[in-house]
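ok posting inputs for the zinc ion job
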Amino acid sequence: MPVMRSKQKSPRRRFFGRMNNIFMEIQPETTCPSCGSAIPAIAYFCSNCGKPLRDKPPATTLSRQIVVYLISLFLPPFGFWYAWKYLKRADHESRKIGIIAVILTMISMLVSIWAFEGFINSVSQSLDLINNFNL
Ligand SMILES: [Zn+2]
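and the output
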């Protein structure tokens, strides 16, 4: 069990402590299955007791689902990573989340490709216009 060295922290330590708290708040959190302390969901080890956390099943709460779906929509490669994590699970709820994440990721990628094609088309149309002017 880790021992708190001192209750009084230097301003620098306090600043980093606060930054860490903010960081912990914006990322999905989970609890350690061993000691029950709150830890980031992406952590490999518990920061409190040091237990490895790789086997912990991904949470299926609504807030967690929203995070997964948003990541799938806006960061497609990570969406696939999440989808794979959920699809690995045997339970129906996790599979459903995985499938939705895959669909959202594919929609996101299709929209990106479509937007890129539109951009290419408009560029080639502009080039055609310039060529016609030169003739
Ligand atoms: Zn722990």
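notes: Residues 92-134 form the longest helix (43 residues). Residues 32, 34-35, 37, 46, 48-49, 51 surround zinc ion (CB under 6 Å).
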